[in-house]
Amino acid sequence: MIAILDHEIVSNPQPEDVGTITVTATVEGYDPTFTAKTFLEEFIEVESRSKENLNDFLMESGINDDDTADGIIELMTYISEVTSSASTDYFPGCALKVGLFLVYGDHQIEEAVQVSLDDHQIEEAVQASFQESYIIRFRPASMFVVEDLPREIYDKPSDTDENCTICLDEFDNGERVVTLPCDHYFHDECAVTWLETSHLCPLCRFELPCEDQ
Ligand SMILES: [Zn+2]
Ligand SMILES: [Zn+2]
């Protein structure tokens, strides 16, 4: 078995796609394709539902246990390399699309890569998940709660460059940052603008109270 992996970093995703990973797995010679969108951290967890589903998909396609395990390990290794290596363009504010293609025997590998990266498939999967998140997407956070969030003046640690994952700019000394209850912090202005549209933390989807609660 050969596992072919490829990825695309979406540097300016829709707000609800920030921090997500979309995995599309295809097994050569098996028609259905596995696609799941989940938060990257959730996917990397040892027991995540998306990984279980991927496991089921690979087993269903007729792959033996060893190859299923190998495929998932290769995928996880690949994802951790993409998300942790300084040589890639990955940053927490983007979305990641990963294609896993498993090939048996001496099929044309280049052809296989072509299929695994079929944008159309990925596009459709993303469309489907838009529908699901549509309802919660446009509920603003309560103004009173937003006003009460703790603010402080950013004091830049000498050896780190942290970014505001809403505007993607680095935090600079003297800028006002606001911290959400989940401990994620952003530029005050960025967070306020964001929370006027969505009551979810852009990084972890922590839910702030809404206007009507
Ligand atoms: Zn910002
Ligand atoms: Zn958060």
From TrEMBL:
Write down the CDD domains for this protein, in alphabetical order. Answer: RING-H2_PA-TM-RING
- Keywords, sorted A to Z: Metal-binding, Zinc, Zinc-finger
- All copies of the RING-type domain together span 164-205
A GO MF label: zinc ion binding
Q: Does the keyword Ribosomal protein apply?
A: no
Entry's Pfam families?
zf-RING_2
What this protein is called in its record is E3 ubiquitin-protein ligase RDUF2
Q: What organism is the protein native to?
A: Cardamine amara subsp. amara
